[in-house]
Description:
There is one protein chain. The chain has helices spanning about 25-35, 85, and strands at about 1-10, 15-20, 40, 45-50, 55-60. The protein is α+β, with helices and mostly antiparallel strands. The protein has one domain (about 1-80). The strands form 2 sheets. The protein has a 3-stranded antiparallel sheet. It has a two-stranded antiparallel sheet with strand order 3-4. It is globular, with a radius of gyration of 13 Å. The protein starts with a strand and ends with a helix.
Amino acid sequence: MKYFILYSLYSPEFTKELYFKSKSMEHLLERIRRYTKVCLVTSHGNINTNQVISIYAREINPSHVSLNKTKFDTINKNKSYSTKDLE
């Protein structure tokens, strides 16, 4: 498992920082792309991707942040949905 910080830009003045764990950077970004324009559900809450201007992710070493590994989100693909799912 790899660990990432995901920066979500909502406006030029507001960026939200989220912590994720995933198999790889490609896997994380593929999941995020799949659920753009509606709702991405994580193990710690929901992200309204409809309001996000841009997303930047970077891999980190979890020992370099003061968070327990259980605080890192995972994407719940069973509860997330996209505009394609609503058709």
